[in-house]
Structures are given as structure tokens and as C-alpha cells.
Amino acid sequence: MNGPALAVSLGDPAGVGPELVCEAWVRRDKEALPGYFAVGGAGLLAAAAKTRGLAVPIQQITDPAEAIAVFPHALPVLGEEDTEYRPGQPSTDGARLALFSLTRATELAINGFASGIMTGPIAKARLAEVGFHYPGQTEFVAAACNIAAQDAVMLLAGPRLRTVPLTVHCALADVPGLLSVDLIRNRARITAEGLRRDLGIAQPRLAICALNPHAGEEGRFGDEEGLIVAPAIAALRDEGIDATGPHPADSLFAPHARETFDVAICMYHDQALIPLKALDFDNGVNMTLGLPIVRTSPDHGTAFAIAGRKQADPGALIAAIRLAGEAAFRRQGHSE
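and the corresponding C-alpha cells:
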């Protein structure tokens, strides 16, 4: 990258985020990672690295501009904020550091002092105790960017599959009532533009999932396909977007079918995340499309049960840093 480094928020300090941020730095050359700096937690990161058996020199910086020069020989950490490293034992102090780190990293990206952000996994219940009132980090970052929640699209990306859930954190029983032609059209447009801008896919192919088994089988198992999904697809095609469907979800993710699309637009959370995690659990990335900044996150949680035990796989976090760097590079006017 020719621009500033990526900002990395710590996530919950008691989870696997800190140790994996250190592991990623150790593998920076092997994985060809862009320069990044952590926001807060210098002592925490040093302790996490030691627990994992990693030799990671930590260098505190006072200006994000220092990160690129520091990154080749030490993990840059911005700021004095810190907390005790207690893996697997989430605390209020840890939640405060997690919220500070997320807030500051987001501000730096919005103001151009970071090329994008990679957010570590959080514990939402703990964050709620210290004033975090969002369903997740996606909604928090969107609000900070003055983007309406419905215009921030969650893309799950792995080496073998990309999916977008149209509805996310809601009861399954609520999904049919939340679907609409406008919802599908809006999120599909944002997805197509995001694939072009951030992933470099010139002509994105969107496969739109059905809601019901067998795509409703002509109304026998529900009429949402005929009343909502098909009209939305027709409207998207009229706009020049390569959208197909409604596709029965039980066959869309087979190997031969995956070759026919660049992203699957899914009706609800599990329809999108089950195939992605089945195929690419250790390399899955959560990327937010529709924002003025680049934001990615590993597609896994805090994993408190294995934090500090040298068991957590760094693949997803490394993939999230790499994808953020690639997207930032493209936004700087480059192409691969």
C-alpha cells in the first residue's frame, strides 16, 4: 500500500483477538500482509504473545503515520490505553478497552489516518455494560460513518464462497415480514458496487436465494418467491445487474453451482453463514460493503474457551487483514 497503515481494533481482550493479532504480525512476510497497527493494549499484546510462545517486539507509537516504518521490525501500538491480560475471563475493564479501540480505530479511518480497519471479535453482552447499544460492530461502524444501517451490507467472504444475508440478527419467524422488493434491490445494488470497488470484480454475478424449500414450488410452500424475490430480480436485471434466481438454497452451494456466481444473496442469517462456515470456517472474513471506509473482521467470535491456549487458528484474522489491505489498495486507485 502507498497510503497509511490499517488500524486494528483489539476486540475483547479476554478473547483470541490479541494473540491472533500477534500471530499475524509474526507471519507478516509469509502471508504478504499490509502494514497495520493495533489501537491500545501494548502490555496486553505483549502478554498475549508470550502466552502463545511468540517473539513479538511491541513498539508504542504516538502518530499513525509512524506505523509503516515500525511494522517491519515491531508491532506498532497506538496509545497508552491498556488492561490486564486474562484470557477466557471477560471483564468490564476489558470491555472498556475494546470499545475504546473500536471507536478510535474507526475515527482514524474516517479521518484518513488509517487506510481501513480490521476489527477483532467482541463480546456484545460485555460491551452493552459499558454503553455499546448496537446489534454488532457492523452497525456501530455504519453509524460512525453516517450510513443508515440498511445501507451497510454484510459480506461473508472465503476462498470458495461469498454470501450476503439480507436479514441478520432477527428471529427466523420475523424474516418473511422483513423481506421486500426494495430491500433486495437496495442490498443487491450495494453488493454489486462493493464487489466492483473493493474486490475488483468488474461484472459481478449475483445469485439470489429463495426463501422457501424448492423456491416455493410454485406457491405450494410459500409465495414470497413470486411476490417479492422474482420481481426484485427482474428489476435488478433491468438496471443492468447480473442477478439470477430465485435459486433453491439446498442446491446453490454445490461445487458446480458455485462456479456460476460471485456472491449468493441469502434471505436470512443461517442461510448465508452455514455454507460459508462449512466451507471456509478458518478463512472466512466479514466485510462491510457500502461504507466510505474499508472494514473487515474475522468471521468468528471471541472463543473465550480456547483463548490463551495456543489453539486458536489465525487464518480468518490474517485473511481479514489481507482483504482490508487489498480493498484499501484498490480504493487508492490501483488494480491487481
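(Above: one complete record from the training split.) Residues 153-276 form a domain with the Isopropylmalate Dehydrogenase fold (CATH 3.40.718.10).
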